[in-house]
């Protein structure tokens, strides 16, 4: 009880800080995929945003600067995975399909699992590497397999964002590495997370895995709330200097299932504390 009260106090402090920073807290109707004016804007570097959504209904329980343009960083890979899941569902691509690693993919900077040019990785392992390790080399492998080039895949990602009603999201690459074409909002990321959870439930275990082993190496999950905060069962972290520390987290607290988004955290520790406080406050 003392812990819960302390976390709720932290949550109130966080919400107050966000409001003082010029945020506006709102409650909105449940989300749905509808045609919306597609108008991504230029992202604001290290801008702070937060949103809490009821994953069952789509109702927004709390929003602060939720529609302000932000750099997604590796939250981008949620869309990379969405398209990959859709491709498996609608084409002959299977979990056992080998994906060829190009020199371009192998040369991607960290985070990566160290794929070598000319080697292959199965779709099954690619999914786990993206969800757990946030692997940039694997993201480019997937992009090249599905669209021929990363640039073509990024354009496909943006079209998909538009069709899903993510009206303030655009992608310049498949990884989330620094690119002026990458922009999103906390609200759009929450919507995307909910769509993944509801449309592709068979892949949920990938997001709650705390580690991933490939080629004899074990990689720990970038989401350190897994196994440490009660009920947290996914989804995705992100960081570049321009974005700050980002996290989309999903949590199951009995009757209430939450999607919590924090973008622009000052540090990994601060971001994780903010997400934890919001989970505690709205559970």
Tags for this model:
single chain, 283 residues, Beta-lactamase, 9 strands, disordered N terminus
List the topology elements.
Elements: H1 2-20, E1 49-54, E2 60-64, H2 77-90, E3 98-100, H3 103-106, E4 120-122, H4 123-133, H5 136-147, H6 150-163, H7 186-199, H8 204-208, E5 211-214, E6 217-220, E7 232-240, E8 244-253, E9 256-265, H9 268-282
Antiparallel strand pairs: 1-2, 1-9, 3-4, 5-6, 7-8, 8-9
Helix pairs in contact: 1-9, 2-5, 4-5, 5-6
Explain what this protein looks like in three dimensions:
The protein is built from nine helices and nine strands. The longest helix has 19 residues, at 2-20. Helix 5 crosses helix 6 (150-163). The strands form three sheets. A five-stranded antiparallel sheet has the order 2-1-9-8-7, with helices on both faces. Strands 3-4 form a two-stranded antiparallel ribbon. The two termini are 14 Å apart. It is of the alpha+beta class and 283 residues long. Helix content is 38%, strand content 19%. It is globular. It has a single domain (2-282), classed as 3-Layer(aba) Sandwich (Beta-lactamase). The model is unreliable at 1-10 and 18-31 (pLDDT under 50).
